[in-house]
């Protein structure tokens, strides 16, 4: 049984980590969050110690370590801009890190973390659950077994409507979240480069607080992508049913069904990490570079090949 600590216990994604720790028969020793709405911990680890101040959390873990109770993993579910710092903290504790996406906001942060990884001998693991989704694995196998010179045409649409609260939170601040393409899109870009190869061209058509769209030329694919937080972007058929999300990937016009099967992917991620097969810094590099380029590119408007939703 491994001992875990969790940073960012009040966020919605933290529950998946608690569940994964429990389902892999491990123990959550301590959790930290500045917000104290964390009653969900009782459903999983009622004996876990909880802190709202980092300094007391730090002291507690140090005391445990000196008394022979080592924290094997620190799971990180904090706002994106804090990941880098919290990963460093984990490694200084002589713990491996498990961090939500995006691992960091800038490509050079990965280089700095690689140095600390080397110094401490500990590993940084990134959650990329789409790589473990059966439909995505099947697509990768299909591409690998298909014609080597084939270039695929892909449309990626991801709409997840958000209320007014979102735009008052850290997620709406680009310096903290990285913007929409980073915050909700990084694992899709990881999945695409994992299957279809490196980015050759990265064009941004539109980019604002609620929407982003662009075009990627990959080694083996042309990708038109669209992401939105605006309910008005939802296709009419779904909107009339008050469905507030829409997620679609088509490859050469064929829909890839991946709407289901997400609930257990964090547990599966933990199983792989505990077996030493987690996705590390090198796996994260391509997607971090991709979203960094998108974030720092000037939108060119409706020129070239752009996603049909972009003009809605």
Overall description:
This protein is an alpha/beta fold and 312 residues long. It has two domains: 3-127, 3-Layer(aba) Sandwich (Rossmann fold), CATH 3.40.50; 130-261 and 280-311, Dihydrodipicolinate Reductase, domain 2. Helix content is 35%, strand content 22%. It contains eleven helices and twelve strands. The protein has helices at residues 14-23, 54-66, 83-92, 107-120, 134-145, 174-177, 180-183, 186-196, 236-240, 265-274, 281-295, and strands at 3-7, 27-32, 49-51, 73-76, 96-99, 124-126, 152-160, 199-207, 211-218, 221-228, 245-251, 254-255. The chain has a six-stranded parallel sheet with strand order 3-2-1-4-5-6, with helices on both faces. A six-stranded mixed sheet has the order 8-9-10-7-11-12, covered by helices on one side. β9 and β10 form a beta hairpin. The radius of gyration is 20 Å and the shape is globular. The protein starts with a strand and ends in a 17-residue tail after the last helix.
Task: Provide a short characterization of the protein structure.
The chain has eleven helices and twelve strands. 35% of the residues lie in helices and 22% in strands.
Q: How much helical structure, as a percent, in the residues?
A: 25-40%
Alpha carbon gap, first and last residue: 52 Å
Largest sheet entry = 6 strands, parallel
- The CATH class assignment of the largest domain is Alpha Beta
**Strand segment count:** 12
Residue stretches low in confidence (pLDDT < 50, at least 5 long) are: none
Overall mean pLDDT stands at 96
Q: Enumerate how many helices there are, as a single number.
A: 11
Over all CA atoms, what is the radius of gyration?
A: 20 Å
Q: What fold name goes in the CATH topology slot of the largest domain?
A: Dihydrodipicolinate Reductase, domain 2
Estimated share of beta-strand residues: 15-25%
Give the full name of the CATH homologous superfamily of the largest domain: Dihydrodipicolinate Reductase, domain 2
Count of discrete structural domains = 2
At CATH level 2, the architecture of the largest domain is 2-Layer Sandwich
What does the overall shape look like? Answer: globular
Structural class computed from helices and strand pairing:
alpha/beta
In the sheet with the most strands, the strands line up as 3-2-1-4-5-6
